Amino acid sequence: MKSDPKNDLPIMDTSEGVVLFHPHMPARAIEYVTDTLKTRWIGQGPKVDKFERDFNTMFGIEGTSIAVGSGTDALHLAYLLADIQPGDEVVVPVFTCTATNIPLLYIGAKPVFADIDPATMNINVEDIRRKMTSKTKAIVVVHYGGLPCDMDEIHAIAREYGVPVIEDAAHALGAQYKGQYIGTVSEFTMYSFQAIKHLTTGDGGMLSFKDNSLANKSKRLRWFGINREDKQKGVWENDITEVGYKYQMTDIGAAIGLAGLEEFPATLKHRQDLFRRYVEGLQGNPNVRIAMDNDSRKVHAAWLFTIFVDRRLELQKKLRDAGIESGQTHYRNDRYSVFKENGHFPHMDSVDDNYLVLPLHTKVSLADVDRICALINSGW
């Protein structure tokens, strides 16, 4: 094996062993995409509409869902629909993909980072409360790895300050909180269909929201500020009154997504079975702590399986030598220069170099998990 000069980890030949991520392409995707390519609609068309309807039906969403080109697009639209303005403060997780927070910079709003819960790496409820001010216009939460945040406690703070909760559910498709799917709980919820998520459209996203009066505006913002329905009547006499974006999903992407929805229950079950097998295999190891809680209100969507260990790089090297990839996946956002943040995050500091993500996807088997657990349990 070669070595990566940045961290001296061996670079694994991904043609062998167990990779950290692998896209799941549903069985009927090729058929559905081929059928789409034979029609007059390959951009945004009837399959996008069907994907939105079927998505709502599967996850019990009674509000509006609009399919877009990425999860980042969906978050930007959520921030716009929540009327976040330049100079407004938004309390956000310090630990997340930068896609959660960068769209706030598009607007000129200020992300105010909150520390993590060191048990789960989700946003810390107590630190949310500490960061709330009269300038706060929303609270953004990320369900790290697929584990729901403490939504009752977070909603209580939001109600006290009269602000919406915006959920970044990029990891959490299929997760549940108190018997309800994530997406039915808060004012706005974003999903990601990027290549390696539970359900992919190649790249894509969905924004679900409860206030159906925002539906027409959301569709205009998705398409340059234009009312597409009026435009498609064949006479162009429409004004554009607001800045819009090119955020639409295509029917090609929606065709893949429709195939993925058909398989989603089996996909979710496989991932949850792998997660449980990891827990069974590692929970007795005193040198390993698992990022999870035992809150009965929550059902984990099992997108990531994360552990905390000392001497993380040594464990990564051992796993790589055995043909198993691992990594940290996300990174604390306060360290990126673009955010200009100098806050104090003691819980994030305490796990900064100790968290490690293990392989969990539809190409991983229970036997693979058993082998990974045995390697970890043999020490490093």
In short:
With 380 residues, the protein is of the alpha/beta class. The protein contains 12 helices and 17 strands.
Write a concise keyword list for the protein shown above.
380 residues; alpha/beta; Aspartate Aminotransferase, domain 1; Aspartate Aminotransferase, domain 2; 7-stranded mixed sheet; 3-stranded antiparallel sheet; globular; disordered N terminus
Strand arrangement, largest sheet?
Answer: 3-12-11-8-7-4-6
Low-pLDDT sequence parts? 1-14
Main β sheet profile: 7 strands, mixed
> What is the straight-line distance between the termini?
19 Å
* Count of distinct structural domains: 2
Radius of gyration, in Å, reads 21 Å
Look at the structure and name the CATH superfamily of the largest domain.
Type I PLP-dependent aspartate aminotransferase-like (Major domain)
Note the total helix count: 12
Task: Explain how this protein is built.
By secondary structure, the protein is an alpha/beta fold. The chain has two domains: 137 residues, Aspartate Aminotransferase, domain 1 (Alpha-Beta Complex), CATH 3.90.1150.10; 230 residues, Aspartate Aminotransferase, domain 2 (3-Layer(aba) Sandwich). Helix content is 34%, strand content 16%. The strands form five sheets. The chain has a seven-stranded mixed sheet with strand order 3-12-11-8-7-4-6, sandwiched between helices. It has a three-stranded antiparallel sheet with strand order 10-9-14, with no helix packed on it. Strands 13-15-17 form a three-stranded antiparallel sheet, with helices on one face. α1 runs antiparallel to α9 and α9 crosses α12. The longest helix is centred in the C-terminal third of the chain and has 32 residues. It is globular.
